[in-house]
Amino acid sequence: MATHLLITALLLFSSLLGPVLGGVLLSTLPQTLSVQASPRPGEILKAGEDKITLRWGLNQNFQGIITDDAYKIVKVKLCFAPISQQDRPWRRTVDDLIKDKTCQFDIVCRPYSKNNKEETFKWIIEKDIPTATYFVRAYALNSTEKEVGFGQTSNEHKTINLFEIQVNSVRLALANIVAACMTAFCVVSVCVFCILEKRRLRRARLLQRNESSSSTTTASTSTTST
Ligand SMILES: *[C@@H]1O[C@H](CO)[C@@H](O)[C@H](O)[C@H]1NC(C)=O
């Protein structure tokens, strides 16, 4: 009887928490959007320099009737391809979109345009995008900002139409040099500060010693010490 009660309580508790803690499952979402990104398959782009042109709209090949009444916002995101998720649990794919780490980078957020207009956006790849293989996914969000539809530039298993982003190695080298210089500058300034401080203390001690002796000798030594 007690265990029965406990199980009922647990079930009730989890069903109450479920909608709060869990998110929408990607596997339940209809692929009602189509997204295109400008990079050719396998193309290598440079972070902080190259641009990606994105186009999205309703998926014309969708099997069935699309009800987009609830669509309020389209959010376009940059997502890791499986090859760049291997051995990296912090990029893992989870069906629950709140826990999913596939699409970590927001590209753009736009109000959904009702009259099936194709939207475009030109994105300069941000400097802090890590070197990896990517694809692009768009989510349609409803008024409570929950995912209600999606589309992506790759297939279901994310094996086609992938492109690479690389961190600019010259920029990275420059950043490292600047960091090294700043560290060296810090060390040097700390040393200079220590030397000056030691000198100041020594001088203060000398002055103190002189002050404790007669007033006439204080005047003569303090002028020689400075
Ligand atoms: C938005 O979508 C979520 C998930 O499908 C749903 O639970 C919620 O009721 C929707 N909100 C509105 C205002 O329709």
TrEMBL record:
<keyword id="KW-1133">Transmembrane helix</keyword>
<keyword id="KW-0534">Nitrate assimilation</keyword>
<dbReference type="GO" id="GO:0005886">
    <property type="term" value="C:plasma membrane"/>
</dbReference>
<dbReference type="Pfam" id="PF16974">
    <property type="entry name" value="NAR2"/>
</dbReference>
<keyword id="KW-1003">Cell membrane</keyword>
<keyword id="KW-0812">Transmembrane</keyword>
<comment type="function">
    <text>Involved in nitrate transport.</text>
</comment>
<comment type="similarity">
    <text>Belongs to the NAR2 family.</text>
</comment>
<keyword id="KW-0732">Signal</keyword>
<dbReference type="InterPro" id="IPR016605">
    <property type="entry name" value="Transptr_NO3_Nar2"/>
</dbReference>
<feature type="transmembrane region" description="Helical">
    <location>
        <begin position="172"/>
        <end position="196"/>
    </location>
</feature>
<dbReference type="GO" id="GO:0015112">
    <property type="term" value="F:nitrate transmembrane transporter activity"/>
</dbReference>
<dbReference type="GO" id="GO:0042128">
    <property type="term" value="P:nitrate assimilation"/>
</dbReference>
<keyword id="KW-0472">Membrane</keyword>
<feature type="signal peptide">
    <location>
        <begin position="1"/>
        <end position="22"/>
    </location>
</feature>
<protein>
    <recommendedName>
        <fullName>High-affinity nitrate transporter</fullName>
    </recommendedName>
</protein>
<dbReference type="GO" id="GO:0010167">
    <property type="term" value="P:response to nitrate"/>
</dbReference>
